[in-house]
Amino acid sequence: YRTHEAMALAGLGEVDSLRRRLAQWEATPEPSDWAGSRTYIAALELAAHGKEREGREMLVGTLPLYGRLRKTEGYRDELYDILLETGQFDEARREVLAGLSTVKSIEDSIGFLGDLGSIAARQGKVDDAARYDRLLAADGRRPGLAGEAAAARSILSAWLGDREGAVRFLEEARAHGVGWAEYRWVHRELAFAGLRDYPPFQQFLKPRE
């Protein structure tokens, strides 16, 4: 319930109340390091609901915890986001390459390729980003991988400033049943911050029958 409360406070923009609650929970021992993910989620929700500066500051503040959790299963995506947000591109790339070295299938490599492309895009290395996009496009032509490849390409397109392409790939991912392409994930994705005032993206986020 703590995570849901944190998300609600973030959605309402109650920054001070959210910080107090997170501090209280952090002072209360838990059986796991879930407090880190809770703060991470709350930070993304703040940024998505009109408190972008506060959300990004909170996100950066979780870096020491994730530095301790870098070997823990399930935390790679969160650590990657934080490293990307703090401009630690070389470290983010090392984390992604370490993860990529463990994959056993093309499907499992798609997210890593997207991450490498996003890092290149953030660094202004457009040619490198385009190369990763071509790899993702090729993967997307393989049976059963079109949706996952489209999801990765939507994020890469957003970092490249291609808002039309980002939404087009989001629609493709949704059409292929990719669970990530749902409102609860997409609306708080850091890469899509530049799309929040873009009418086609706003339309994508609206409920559908």
> Total number of β-strand segments?
0
Largest sheet: none
Ends distance: 28 Å
Unreliable stretches (pLDDT < 50, length at least 5) are none
**Shape label:** globular
**Residue fraction in strands:** under 5%
Arithmetic mean of pLDDT = 88
Number of DSSP helical runs = 13
Structural class: mainly alpha
Secondary-structure element pattern, one letter each: HHHHHHHHHHHHH
- Share of helical residues: 55-70%
Radius of gyration: 17 Å
What does this structure look like?
This protein is mostly helical. 69% of the residues lie in helices and 0% in strands. The chain contains 13 helices and no strands. α9 runs antiparallel to α10 (146-159). The longest helix has 17 residues, at 106-122. The radius of gyration is 17 Å and the shape is globular.
